[in-house]
Amino acid sequence: MDENRYEVLKLKNQLCFPLxxxxxxxxxxxxxxxxxxxxxxxxxxxxxxxxxxxxxxVKELGECxxxxxxxxxxxxxxxxxxxxxTRKRSDKDERNLIVEITSEGEKLxxxxxxxxxxxxxxxxxxxxxxxxxxxxxxxxxGRI
Amino acid sequence: MDENRYEVLKLKNQLCFPLxxxxxxxxxxxxxxxxxxxxxxxxxxxxxxxxxxxxxxVKELGECxxxxxxxxxxxxxxxxxxxxxTRKRSDKDERNLIVEITSEGEKLxxxxxxxxxxxxxxxxxxxxxxxxxxxxxxxxxGRI
DNA sequence: TGTAATTAAATTGTTCGCAATTAAATTACA
DNA sequence: TGTAATTTAATTGCGAACAATTTAATTACA
Lengths: 144, 144
Prior knowledge:
The structure is a homodimer. Chain A has a single domain (16-143), classed as Winged helix-like DNA-binding domain superfamily/Winged helix DNA-binding domain (Arc Repressor Mutant, subunit A, Orthogonal Bundle), CATH 1.10.10.10. Chain A has a 3-stranded antiparallel sheet. Chain A is globular, with a radius of gyration of 19 Å. By secondary structure, chain A is mainly alpha-helical. Chain A contains 7 helices and 3 strands, in the order H-H-E-H-H-E-E-H-H-H. The interface between A and B is large, with 56 and 56 residues.
């Protein structure tokens, strides 16, 4: 009677699964708001970094977002096509591609500023629970 | 001086971002283990449901995983090619595709049973913290 | 100095993830 | 009963994610 061996393989006993499911569900919640400013979620978080930092290279952006050039290279090109950023090689080290926000990109910030508040109601967590969740997530990320 | 308006747009003030980043990082942790049994993470959680339920249709599988047929249809075909499941239309209602585990699929369970324990050390959370995280995540998922 | 090692970004190829549409089967109900 | 509405999967198209490889530039160091 050691069928209990398999209990660990049940979805309900997994921690990773709700993490994966929850992440996708919350990102989906952003969609109607992001559609209005013609950004995907990944483009949005990339713009968040650029709204704050104005200019950085692909590697630095990747460190902020935990994404590599395989994901970022095509994404950055799409942001350039939209006119939100510029791409140019560094003079000091031509291996580096400098991504810089444009005035058009800066303007988008104004349209995006209300999104966090509109999204806030999407979770039914209290302020304390949200802060707790935040710190637990960063505790895991920090170790990885 | 209301530059504080933009504080909400900083990555560090987002709850969704660490959720998104953490999910991807943890899934990445599964990769070396899942490579050994030739499954992707999504295929793995689909197999988890099948190890438990033996047989269900696409809709039911989708409800378990919060995924739709757009994601599942091609994934199920790949599992069939691997010989882990069979696909057949229901006699009662031909709209339903019944996905059923094969003996080959059952055998894989034996190889997978150690993965959860091997992964367990991937987070540096205590048992209490893990349970807390689990319940916070399901609280969000439940509402959505 | 010249070659080897390293670094940064881009590219390639595969698998999601999902919105929107399509096709086929079933159900509702006028 | 016959048509409309609904339901279920599959398909289409696009944008991530990511491993692995490639290309080009820079750095290390023999």
